Amino acid sequence: MASVTSLTDLVSKQLTSALSATRPETSADPLLRRSDRADFQANGILALAKKAKANPRDLATEVVSHITTGDVIKDVEVSGPGFLNITIADRAVLENLAARYADGTGRLGVPLAENPGITVIDYAQPNVAKEMHVGHLRSAVIGDALRGMLDFTGEKTIGRHHIGDWGTQFGMLIQYLMEHPGELAPPSEVDGDQAMSNLNRIYKASRAVFDADEAFKERARKRVVALQSGDKETLELWQQFVDESKVYFNSVFDKLDMEIRDDEIVGESAYNEGMPETARLLEEMGVAERSEGALVVFFDDIRGKDDKPVPLIVQKADGGFGYAASDLTAIRNRVFDLHADTLLYVVDVRQSLHFKMVFETARRAGWLNDDVTAHHIGFGTVLGADGKPFKTREGETVRLKDLLDEAVQRAAEVVREKAKDLTEEEIQERAAQVGIGAVKYADLSTSPTRDYKFDLDQMVSLNGDTSVYLQYAYARIRSILRKAGDVRPAAHPELELHEAERALGLHLDAFGDTVFEAAAEYAPHKLTAYLYQLASLYTTFYDKCPVLKAESPEQVENRLFLCDLTARTLTKGMSLLGIRTPERL
């Protein structure tokens, strides 16, 4: 792969060299940023002037004298108290973009990270025998996007779907199935809807018997003990629930256009055998202690309303284990067996205190340290139009499948209205891509920790910061390239660029830097912001710079080149977020 040094880095190197030549005894970061007055503005001079006890403007003028203009930097001027406004040469812009365009790997010249690591991402965590609802949406969408961005940087990612497949409710379900054999069909004989219908029916029926029949309730409790003890018949029936649920899970994830690998579905049950050892290790190391019969970990800074310490319960007084033991055992597995150096947990922000205690416990045990870190990527709530948690009109939690189906249906209306040469089959295909893309983008364009309103009308709008706007920009470019016929895109560095061409070109060059920044900060919304601005800059370019009717054949080729590179960047960026870009809309 031929990696390309970004214009930002090229300018930064020249400025660093000039700063060193001006004041070799000290140094300062150029702190480049985009500016309305120039392509870049450098404001590191102020820090350098403070160190050197010099006048900032005088020092800035001296730094400029050490900058060579020409190949990359066209012009530098001192402004304000000592800022440097820097203009990039048109030739440098086009040559850098041409190098990106020539990269045949599809990476647009973006290099891989020098020292990539291994990141385990815990996301998309549905519960066995329970229907997925709107609350499961954000974990899946955010986790998948983080994985796409990290993979692109060269990080090795391992998915972990910590599904709820263990606990007391399974005693009730298994006992009911034992007394009503044949209620669950083999997974190969049902689709997702049938699987969920069966599971819902059995759950409601078993719950009704459990609440009304004390003898059944006692048998169900004993069945929990049999499950935890590894009883063969009990485990076989438990596996039926897991398999049936996976059929349903996969049907929903398919709608989300998201691949969930079976070997990465590692539920709570996978850590069952390791939890006693986790408890033993923590107690032996003195990290956990016995309190009122339970094994707990205390924290000086975590107290309840009565100012009493709030402990993390590793093992209950009756010997049972809860979420803390499961999560701590999972950390041991991910660090020592999977050799991860970063653990990400894409889980509701309301679990922040739990993860704070779990991570601190793991640090005290030495399982986490400066080289092996864990991060809770907490996300906010999906709200309805009324600003309250999203519910149906009846006040029930919205089923995720229904929500996705409605998004596709609404997108079909938009696509059909705009479609000129699409068949009904093509409209439905694109409606799925547009509708699901709209749901994902609305989620990802919001900072994960913030709540956001689920407004389908806005999500599928052709105007504003929506995935549909980006998808139509991509489709428009593909249409232009088809109309160009035999005229091929080609960069012409000798041409002078229009202001709109320069703005678009400079933004295209920043793609790699943006992805690396978004990945490092676990912030997909920074990539969506970049892509929206890219589509907006392209719209301005398209309005101000005729493409096929440009003044010369060279200008036509050059503008087609800018169009094609914009399309490639849009589709690459959207794909990292798990969103498709249809060729025609």
TrEMBL record:
Its EC number is 6.1.1.19. It is found in: Cytoplasm. Residues 9-88 form the Arginyl tRNA synthetase N-terminal domain. Keywords: Aminoacyl-tRNA synthetase, ATP-binding, Cytoplasm, Ligase, Nucleotide-binding, Protein biosynthesis. Its main location: cytoplasm. One of its GO terms (molecular function) is arginine-tRNA ligase activity. Residues 470-585 form the DALR anticodon binding domain. A motif ('HIGH' region) lies at residues 126-136. Gene3D superfamilies: Arginyl tRNA synthetase N-terminal domain (3.30.1360.70), HUPs (3.40.50.620), Isoleucyl-tRNA Synthetase, Domain 1 (1.10.730.10). It catalyses: tRNA(Arg) + L-arginine + ATP = L-arginyl-tRNA(Arg) + AMP + diphosphate. InterPro entries: aa-tRNA-synth_I_CS (IPR001412), Arg-tRNA-ligase (IPR001278), Arg-tRNA-synth_N (IPR005148), Arg-tRNA-synth_N_sf (IPR036695), ArgRS_core (IPR035684), DALR_anticod-bd (IPR008909), Rossmann-like_a/b/a_fold (IPR014729), tRNAsynth_Ia_anticodon-bd (IPR009080). It is an enzyme of class 6 (ligase). NCBIfam families: argS (TIGR00456). Belongs to the class-I aminoacyl-tRNA synthetase family. Monomer. This is Arginine--tRNA ligase. The gene is argS.
